[in-house]
Amino acid sequence: MGGQPMFILNEDSERTQGKDAQSSNITAGKAVSESVRTTLGPRGMDKMLVSDSGDVVITNDGATILDEMDIEHPAAQMISEVAETQETEVGDGTTTAAVLAGELLSQAEDLLDDDVHPTTIVEGYYAALSMAHEAIDEIKLDEELDDDLLETVARSSMTGKGTGDVSAERLAETVVDAVRRVEDDAGVVRDNITVYTQTGSSSSATRLVDGVLIDEEPVHDNMPRSFDDPQIAFVNDDIEVREASIDAEYNVSSVDDLNTAIEAEESELRGYAEHVLDLDVDVLFVDGDVADQVAAILAKNDVAAFEVGDDEGEELAHATGLSRAAGVQELEADDLGSAGSLSVEKFGDNYVTFLEDGDAGQSVTVFARGGTEHVTDELERVLGDALDVVTAALDKGGVVPGAGATEIAVADHIRSEAASVEGRKQLAVEAFADAVDVLPRTLAENTGMDPIDALVDLRAEYESEGIAGIISEGQTGVIDDPVDLGVLDPVAVKDEAVESAAEAATMIVRIDDVISAS
Questions:
Q1: Catalytic residues
Q2: Does residue 1 surpass a pLDDT of 50?
Q3: Distance (Å, rounded) from C-alpha 325 to C-alpha 235?
Q4: Where is this region: Disordered (predicted)?
Q5: Which fold is adopted by the domain 211-360?
Q6: Which among 508, 402, 512 is positioned nearest to 107, based on CA atoms?
Q7: Which of 179, 337, 395, 417 is deepest in the core (most CB within 10 A)?
Q8: Phi-psi category of 365—alpha, beta or left, where left has phi over 0 and alpha has psi -120 to 50?
């Protein structure tokens, strides 16, 4: 090669290596974590997020905040993905996961400064992660998951979040009722619960609908707007004149030819409508367009038709037991479903169709109300999280004490087991325990307590009583038993939070070379 240098990267590429790369990534991850830290707990603050177009989102939901933020740094995006994963898997604990990931990075930074190798840190963190799962399993409550306990879990997930003028207690009852209605021997079918929002009334008007809500009105003004015990059909295609399957031109040379062609089209459309009428269908849902002539005939015979999408078709099938026909000609009597009632109501300029008490009874809708769009948007997030945590509690392992009590137990267990870990890896295990402490410490700080004093008191109470958490009381907080005071979290939320936070932190710590194209 004659001693000539070999360039394998574009000359405009940027490259950061070694400690500089580690420091940059860790700093970016910590910055994202800090951005949501003040939202944690019952006294957590909200964030106002304003987009380039002026759209405003006000929330303290970690996943929403990080999703709305315009994050460019790749390592920072990894922390955002932690919240996204947490939201997808269990629906709550997103802020917990993001804050823990940031603190794990902070602890790793100190270890790197002390010349602990990144691989050693990663091995220690994964050893500590296994201990964390053990501690969570040990502190799990050995109690039956009855409705009262599930309502407690739902209320805990709503703590510190905006619910308008409706109490968390009432929303929790609605949430548990919804989950119980879609529960079967195999577990909770979470996809069969929908949250539908509509502005124009106070949040206290929120209610559970035993069925589905559809954002449509009948396609013809003269169609009925309400039914009792309707027979319901769904067609997965347009109800219009069929198009030729080949390119062809038709030469119309006389008025008689034109009238014949028009009459043939009208006959075809009339046949579609008559087929629907022969099956005694009261309500027809169509994933496509309905020809005006067909709509007019159906309206004249008191049949309501709606143009909807495939998603609504799935919901209707779960609610009424109908089968979706490929086309109107394929529709048969066995494909029909039924419901207790259908009604079309107007809210401002919007029409909403309520289909209730379907025979299949597998779909329910939480009809959330609010005075403004910001209120309904936040209420939708709150209800979604509550539905997810109740589902997680039933399907994924029960509940544990909240209010920082589980984290105190986890940190204590990891420290007690750290002595059995040899070499420098022990330092990483202990650092993991210190990182977990950030959660009760942040809860204390956001509640108005001195975080250091609170952490000392929590550890002392845990040593003597076996359980201790931070309970918001007035303008500050107190150390008490969260189980007695009804602060509970699903096991799955805690397990997923430590898992996803550890994975993100270790991935970032192992990076020592960043190559970016210009």
A1: 61, 94-95, 385
A2: no
A3: 5
A4: 9-30
A5: GroEL (3.50.7)
A6: 508
A7: 179
A8: beta
- The dihedrals phi and psi of 349, each to the nearest 5 degrees, come to -95, 5
* Phi and psi angles of residue 44, each rounded to the nearest 5 degrees, phi first: -65, 150
For residues 58 and 382, the answer to whether their CB atoms sit within 8 Å is: no
Q: What is the 3-state secondary structure (H, E, C) of 193-256?
A: EEEEEEECCCHHHCEEECEEEECCCCCCCCCCCEEECCEEEEECCCECCCCCCCCCCCCCCCHH
**DSSP H or E stretch at residue 136:** helix 118-139
Amino acid in position 160: G
| Closest to 139 in 3D by CA, of 388, 392, 408 | 408
With beta carbons less than 8 A apart as the criterion, state whether 291 and 239 touch: yes
Task: Determine the Cα–Cα distance for residues 65 and 60; give it in Å rounded to an integer.
Answer: 7
Backbone CA torsion sign across 199, 202, 203, 206: negative
- Are residues 210 and 193 in contact, defined by beta-carbon separation less than 8 angstroms? no
CATH 3.50.7.10 in the chain is located at: 211-360
Query: Tens digit of pLDDT for each residue in 267-285?
Result: 888 888 899 999 999 999 9
**Which pair of tokens denotes residue 122?**
């990663």
- Between CA 144 and CA 396 the distance in angstroms is 14
In the predicted model, what is the mean pLDDT of the chain?
A: 84
**Rounded CA separation 23/402 (Å):** 33
pTM (two decimals): 0.77
Give how far Cα 123 sits from Cα of 111, 118, 196, 413, 440, Å: 13, 9, 46, 18, 25
Residue 471 structure tokens: 């309970």
- pLDDT reported for residue 245: 47
Looking at CATH, the fold of the domain delimited by 14-141+400-439+487-509 is given as GROEL; domain 1 (1.10.560)
Cβ(441)–Cβ(41) under 8 Å?
A: no
* AA letter at 230: P
Per-residue three-class SS string for 440-482: HHHHHHHHCCCHHHHHHHHHHHHHHHCCCEEEEECCEEEEECC
- Split at pLDDT 50, 70, 90, the class of 517 is low
Cα distance between residue 152 and residue 390, in whole Å:
9
- Other CB atoms within a 10 A radius of the CB of residue 419 amount to 10
Positions of CATH 1.10.560.10 in the chain:
14-141+400-439+487-509
Mapped onto helix, strand or coil, the DSSP state of residue 467 is: coil
Alpha carbons within 13 angstroms on the beta-carbon side of residue 111 total: 30
User: Which residue, among 79, 80, 78, has the nearest Cα to 68 in the 3D structure?
Assistant: 80
Tens of pLDDT, residues 183-212? 888 888 888 898 988 887 888 888 898 989
